[in-house]
Design a protein that fits this description.
The chain contains eleven helices and twelve strands. The chain is α/β, with parallel strands linked by helices and 352 residues long.
């Protein structure tokens, strides 16, 4: 039998060895945990986890100098900064066309971004580009406009374009004092014959006049590729061809700019109803002066923010669509001369 002093010395030694063993076990566990985190695969094939690495988000639009896209860039940039992501925002400066957009898109895709927010200038021409992006491991969101087949896209974020077209019809009818049994000639200026936004707005306009204002005749449409000078030329030609023209629906902001300039130059402000899309600061000033009968305001800042937020959330969740809406449709706001100064300021697009 061990004497009490010897037993005490062995107890102390046992406690010391047990403590050393516990510390070693904790250290080893820490090394093992650290090694696992650094080697876990990322959503884009890297060596760090999707939540740890800085994500790169490409953002490709049509005419990047259009104030609508300038405002969208502000929303996208602010959200990317808040989420710790790098943003590559690109687009042809002035021309809204697949011929100019596709080479720019390819340059962005060559940088292998983790995600891509794309505002396609044509639903068919950009379809293969979406497939190309997805094939290289880049998650895609369509924003503002869309491709025909959205099955490979994470989400589609846009304004309510059909509703906007219908509201434009209502505004023109009110401005011209529409009366059943009478006939009124109107025209529509678009940027593109195929861009989904333009198509939906024109469809909404046509559906509303067919349902409520059958005496309104849409006698001509024209296309500007987001160039105000071309839009101005289109309107001048229509004013010559249709001397009794009652109204103009300018389906986007650049067409609204061109149409407003044409009416002012010919002294026809107040004589031809002008309803435009997009609350550019310059267009809102002209609305206050009575050049525009109404403006349909979108929310490009929110569209840009939502596009970046959706992509980052999707990628960092390991490409899970849980909690992500396949389609986000933001409402439009109709602005008139009687709209409060506070609301006019609120819905005017921020400038770059």
């Amino acid at each position: 039998m061990m004497n009490p002093l010897t037993r005490g010395r062995w107890s102390t030694r046992a406690l010391l060895l047990a403590s050393i063993g516990a510390v070693s076990a904790i250290a080893l566990a820490g090394c093992s945990s650290s090694g696992t985190a650094s080697s876990s695969p990322s959503g884009s094939g890297g060596t760090s986890s999707p939540t740890a690495k800085q994500l790169t988000i490409g953002f490709v639009v049509g005419a990047s100098s259009d104030p609508f896209f300038v405002a969208m860039k502000q929303g996208a940039s602010a959200e990317a900064s808040a989420l710790g992501a790098k943003l590559i925002f690109q687009g042809d400066a002035t021309t809204y066309s697949p011929a100019t957009q596709i080479p720019i898109l390819n340059q962005v895709l060559a940088q292998k971004p983790d995600g891509l927010a794309l505002a396609p200038t044509d639903p068919s021409a950009l379809q293969s580009e979406v497939a190309k992006a997805v094939a290289q491991g880049t998650a895609v969101v369509n924003v503002d406009s869309r491709v025909n087949d959205l099955s490979q896209a994470v989400s589609f974020i846009t304004g309510d374009n059909t509703q906007g077209g219908a509201k434009a019809a209502d505004a023109i009818a009110a401005a011209i004092g529409y009366q059943s049994g009478k006939t009124y000639q109107v025209v529509a200026g678009l940027t593109s014959a195929t861009a989904s936004t333009n198509v939906a707005r024109l469809d909404g306009f046509k559906q509303q006049i067919a349902a409520k204002y059958p005496g309104i005749q849409l006698v001509a449409t024209g296309y500007s590729q987001s160039n105000p000078t071309t839009a101005n030329t289109n309107v001048n030609n229509w004013l010559t061809q249709y001397p009794n023209l009652a109204g103009i629906f300018a389906i986007d902001g650049t067409n609204a700019q061109g149409a407003a300039a044409a009416l002012q130059a010919k002294g026809l402000v107040g004589k031809v109803a002008l309803v435009g899309y997009d609350a550019y600061a310059t267009n809102v000033d002209l609305l206050k002066k009575g050049v525009f009968t109404a403006l349909i305001a979108q929310n490009p800042v929110e569209e840009g923010k939502e596009a970046v937020d959706t992509l980052v959330k999707y990628i960092r969740s390991g490409n899970s669509k849980a909690g992500i809406q396949a389609a986000v449709t933001l409402p439009n706001i109709v602005l008139t001369k009687s709209t409060s100064s506070g609301d006019l300021a609120k819905y005017t697009y921020p400038q770059g």
